[in-house]
Amino acid sequence: VQLQASGGGLVQPGGSLRLSCAASGRIVRIDTMGWYRQAPGGPRDLVATMSSGGSSEYADSVKGRFTISRDSNKNTVYLRMNNLKPEDTAVYYCHADVLSLNSEEAFVAQKSWGQGTQVTVSS
């Protein structure tokens, strides 16, 4: 299973970005999908997650500014980020709890991570 993230970039304070992350492979089911971020020298922190049933969770620092959504038909999760602040600058990683099939046709439950996409908020 692979997760491919895109949509990062440089934006001025107050601006917006939308991140996307598509999962591919021999996927049987995806449970929770979400986004984490890691600033230089810091830990990887939760930003937002969404369950397969649509329940979402946000870090306090992004509530009211970020919105997570997902398209289950496309195995894709999105993060709409509005009113961006310099402290949002980080590498953003997508994550998914995936049930897939391996080459022996056995079920495999795994936590998959995308490669990370840089978000820089600066004037």
Mean pLDDT: 95
Please tell me what the overall shape is.
elongated
Largest sheet at a glance? 7 strands, mixed
Question: Unreliable runs, pLDDT <50, ≥5 residues?
Answer: none
Judged by helices, strands and strand pairing, the structural class is: mainly beta
Roughly how many Å is the radius of gyration? Answer: 15 Å
Number of strands: 11
What proportion strand? over 45%
Number of helices: 0
Question: Would you summarize the structure shown here?
Answer:
This protein has 123 residues and is mainly β. It has strands spanning 2-6, 9-11, 17-24, 27-38, 44-50, 56-58, 66-71, 76-81, 90-101, 107-113, 117-121.
What can you see in these coordinates?
This protein has 123 residues and is mostly beta strands. It is built from no helices and eleven strands. It has strands spanning 2-6, 9-11, 17-24, 27-38, 44-50, 56-58, 66-71, 76-81, 90-101, 107-113, 117-121. Strands 2, 4, 5, 6, 9, 10 and 11 form a seven-stranded mixed beta sheet that branches. The protein has a four-stranded antiparallel beta sheet with strand order 1-3-8-7, with no helix packed on it. A hairpin with a 5-residue loop joins strand 9 (90-101) and strand 10. The chain is elongated and about 50 Å long.
Topology of this structure?
Elements: E1 2-6, E2 9-11, E3 17-24, E4 27-38, E5 44-50, E6 56-58, E7 66-71, E8 76-81, E9 90-101, E10 107-113, E11 117-121
Parallel strand pairs: 2-11
Antiparallel strand pairs: 1-3, 3-8, 4-5, 4-9, 5-6, 7-8, 9-10, 9-11
